[in-house]
Known about the structure:
The structure holds two protein chains of two kinds.
Chain A: H1 2-23, E1 48-55, E2 68-73, E3 90-91, E4 100-102, E5 105-108, E6 115-122, E7 125-133, E8 145-150, E9 153-159, E10 166-172, E11 178-183, E12 194-195, E13 200-204, E14 209-214, E15 216-217, E16 231-236, E17 241-248, E18 254-255, E19 268-270, E20 276-284, E21 287-295, E22 310-311, E23 316-323, E24 326-332, H2 334-338, E25 345-351, E26 357-359, E27 361-362, E28 365-366, E29 378-381, E30 384-390, E31 395-401, E32 407-412, E33 418-426
Antiparallel strand pairs in A: 1-2, 1-33, 2-3, 4-5, 5-6, 6-7, 8-9, 9-10, 10-11, 12-15, 13-14, 14-16, 16-17, 18-20, 19-20, 20-21, 21-22, 23-24, 24-25, 25-26, 27-28, 29-30, 30-31, 31-32
Chain B: E1 5-14, E2 24-27, E3 33-35, E4 41-47, E5 49-56, E6 63-69, E7 73-74, E8 77-79, H1 83-88, H2 96-101, E9 107-111, H3 122-127, E10 132-136, E11 144-148, E12 156-160, E13 163-164, E14 182-189, E15 203-209, E16 216-224, E17 228-239, E18 244-255, E19 260-268, E20 273-280, E21 286-298, E22 305-318, E23 333-347, E24 355-372, E25 376-378, E26 384-386, E27 398-403, E28 406-416, E29 421-438, E30 447-464, E31 469-484, H4 490-493, E32 500-518, E33 521-532, H5 536-540, E34 546-547, E35 555-568, E36 574-588, E37 590-595, E38 602-607, E39 610-623, E40 627-640, E41 664-675, E42 683-693, E43 696-697, E44 711-712, E45 715-726, E46 731-738, E47 746-748, E48 751-752, E49 757-766
Parallel strand pairs in B: 1-7, 1-8, 12-15, 34-38
Antiparallel strand pairs in B: 1-4, 2-3, 2-5, 5-6, 9-14, 10-11, 12-13, 14-15, 16-17, 16-49, 17-18, 18-21, 19-20, 21-22, 22-23, 23-24, 24-27, 24-28, 25-26, 27-29, 28-29, 29-30, 30-31, 31-32, 32-33, 33-35, 35-36, 36-39, 37-38, 39-40, 40-41, 41-42, 42-45, 43-44, 45-46, 46-49, 47-48
Amino acid sequence: MKTKTFSVMKFLKxxxxxxxxxxxxxxxxxxxxxxxxxxxxxxxxxxxxxxxFMSVGEHGGMGRSENTIVKSVDSLTVNQPMIDIKGSGVELxxxxxxxxxxxxxxxxxxxxQTRFTxxxxxxxxxxxxxEQPFVTNTYTERKYAHAWLDDNTLLIMAANGDGDKIIWTxxxxxxxxxxxxxxxxxxxxxxxxxxxxxxxLTYNQKVGKLYYFYYGKDKADxxxxxxxxxxxxxxxxxxxxxxxxxxVNSLAGxxxxxxxxxxxxxxxxxxxxxxxxxxxxxxxxDFDKGQLLRINKGESxxxxxxxxxxxxxxxxxxxxxxxxxxxxxxxxxxxxxxQGAAYYMKYSIVDLKTGERTPLTYNGKEVGYSSGRFSQRSxxxxxxxxxxxxxxxxxxxxxxxxxxxxTEKGADIAQGYYFDVLRVVEN
Amino acid sequence: MAQVVVTLSGKVTSSDGSPVAQATLAVEGxxxxxxxxxxxxxxLSLSEGKYTVSASFVGFKSQKKNIELDGNKVVNFxxxxxxxxxxxxxxxxxxxxxxxxxxxxxxxxLDVKPIVNSLNNLNELVNRASGIKVRQEGGVxxxxxxxxxxxxxxxxxxxxxxxxxxxxxxxxSLANIPVNIIDHIEMYxxxxxxxxGSDALGGAINIVTKKEKKNYLDVxxxxxxxHTHKVDMNAQIVFPKSGLIxxxxxxxxxxxxxxxxxxxxxxxxxxxxxxxxxxxxFHDDYFSLLAQVEVGVKGKSWADDFFxxxxxxxxxxxxxxxxxxxxxxxMAERQGDAYNISAQYRKKDFILKGLQxxxxxxxxxxxxxxxxxxxxxxxxxxxxxxxxxxxxxxxxKSLRHYKRPTTMFRSNWDYRINQHHSVNLNYLVNRTGNxxxxxxxxxxxxxxxxxxxxxxxxxxNQQFLQNKIxxxxxxxxxxxxxNIRQTDLYWQTGSDEVMGSNTNNYWGYGVGTRVKFxxxxxxxxSFEHSVRLPLARELLGNGSTIYANTALDPExxxxxxxxxxxxxxxxxxxxxxxxxNGFMRFVDDYIQAVVAEKEGMMQYENVPAVHxxxxxxxxxxxxxxxxxxxxxxxxxxARDQRKYKDDGKLSATYLNRVPNRPWLFGAAEADYTFxxxxxxxxxxxxxxxxxxxxxxxxxxxxYGAIESKARIPxxxxxxxxxxxxxxxxxxxxxxxxxxxxxxxxxxxYKLQKPGRSFFFKFRMFLN
Lengths: 427, 767
């Protein structure tokens, strides 16, 4: 009996390994986009695994939890054992879930530290690859935006402590040396006393420009209100000069995820042509109307004629490009939230051209609402979207095949924790 | 015409000249009397006239003297030993602390007076008591968290002579109160006597100051490692003619706290790595001053005690690190100033015989300031780069003021019905403001919260069979008064339900019992349904990042203690005291900040909290006057009671052990005193202590691979001290060494405490 069990386990392990080897030889050309190739999985080249960030006792967001465990798994298919962190996984402390990831590595301004850190999660350990103390510009944890100018150049940008200037630092991601630093020549918006802390920064590779979305507030504290709709500044990445005059947006009030600067939730996507899509929202009465906006390739402002994807139920919190003109969004139902519901977020597939929106379904049934407003539980890799849900009845992965539009069930995730983030990284 | 009160004083000695302590001095035909102190000295305040005064003590023949008092007089008594009595009777006197330990409450008491010559750190002394754990962030004056049976923070209240310690200023604490003024410390675990009048959920610490009866001057100066200096002075001056008593007290602490930090990260550009290095702390100066003067009278017909007290406290504290040592500060600091004025009155047989009334009225002007105006980033070399952010919050410059005016009135009425029954009524009203503003940070929204609480406690005590059985029953009424004016966000804050002037009433109650038929075996048990009222910030929010929650209930806990204790004298001169206690704490409606879904906004809510159970044991042994030993061990198991997560699903941590808190720890100490060493009436005291804390996890232990989990390492700390006293304690010199083996010690994750340190103290006590 023992021999048989051993053989079955051996077979399963060998099968898992082969599956992983076969499935995840992803290549950047398969799902091309024109973006900065940031933290998504579509740009990965090589064998990959998934890191699942689960927090114990409380949500891991806002840089406050010491209780986040990262479990690395090779596969998220349904034949995997239940993914649990009991006795396994690596304690993320002192790092937090607001991370930049690319290739094999994570990058962060760690909580309560005055440095940039590049590290790797490997064999249930966190291995620091390289660190770099601040030299001129200083940043605080989770309050900065970032963009990849190329595979090796990471740009960090944020408002300074007074909130009246935008500072930036270019890092060589290989050895973490600081390539250059400076302050943007960007004036405060009219009537504003401070910038929003991080804003949203993205690099359009096909255009060769940085886009920075930001707004100003009339007070520095949390009671401060935006003085206008958000603005778009176009920046030349080589000299960090702001080109032209930043434009106040005429279509939406605020961009989504402005506080995190895409350290956790992705809200910018590019299609194959190099058009930029941004999740944004406008306050309407007691709730926020979610919108997807588009800057056409080569333009410096949003396309006023493109505003056909609206979520009247509430904000669109995450946006990821799937390919073939489709994107995955994670949006809220503000009405349910105001009624005290814990489950009010759902995933949908949207056609960026027609605006057609299809809720994520499995076996012909809509996958129910999830909990977790500040979650990023989806990655796109190798033609598939791996979507983690936490519905009232289950916590698991669904695997959406981009080419066929079909959804299959993936691995189950143990309950009792806060399933905050799913990342895909190279082995 | 007013009677003239004069002082009769003197010394009681045996025939060989040794002082007789605790001898009874009785004035025949009156109810006046007193006991001699440890040096045999006594003082009586009497009206002028003729008296017969007797002095007696077990083992000695009583002696009577006829005395005519027409002014202050000194009369000494020399008692002759009673040979017959001495053959048959062995006397084991119990200290106040020992008597307290044997009361019906779960209470530990520490005698400070006998060890004050070498004591320089009150926190360290308290930390060695069973069930108590003090977690310090650094050296002298550093922030600390004291827990009693696993409950800490707002759950523990502090008192000095029964008055809330906060009346001396919010920065006055065990870390800086002058040790020389302390007689003993009482630590109530879970069940707090109603006369302390406070909403203590988990326990209370009451510092009892010494009460000398005659003029004295007590001065000490200490100097120690890391540029530490301590000066204490307190005195009592009695003006015989007027009966006026003046008691000045001054305590000063200063330390640079420049101890070596081992293995801190220092950037080495040549290898482009942070390299573990040893560096001295460079921005951790601490200064505290407490100055106080009490002026009053004793023994008047209209008052047994009437004192007016004025005090001033000042703290300057540089901040060296954030909550972990990788965040280094070089300029941030905290300052505090507090003025207090109070008047207290005590009268026995007030209105009717057997009724004692004691009242105190106090007002405190308390002002603290956090200075965070440097745009710099420091490293452990003490170097910095210019930054665009302040040091603590990473935002704009800040000069944050907190003004907390506190008015407190407490009145205690104690009525002894007869030798078996007594009742005690205590009323306390406390009105505290919290005015917060910032001089330079325009974004800070000022707020001025006020909360007023009334606490009424009524207890009934009974004693039967020569005090073999003692029972105490008590009820406490907690009244919280709010005036809600805010109406915005009523759906979030609940302000629509409790608009306007609002008074909430909550009841607490408890019982304690002790049965002692035999000296070696006695039993006690106590219970309290305790309450902690919400703070203004918890109820009303802070105007910016915290929503109000006016529907917030107080924290509640059901605290149970069961214990056995006893004293055994196995042979002449040997005493062995033991104590074993089991306890349970059922904390519910815990007030916890819950993060709202909107970014950064929080609100305090009542959540199921934690249930704690534990056992602790302590053994004390003494041999004659020479040897004293103590050892204790405490085990406590705190389990999370939050069954469901925010989303309604079962929480993985439900019933798990709560992380980041010590759960197994112990201490031991021993001291030996030699008498008449080199010189007559001298003593040499050698002492040593050991503290141990089992390592514990920073986070929930069951989750994550065991090798990846952060731990707070075990502590093994040994201290030693030596004190030489001359002329019956008039002149005292002590040398102490803490952490002899220079162990790396942490109470908090990666916040190092000092290594080996020496302290030299000279104390002079003249009376």
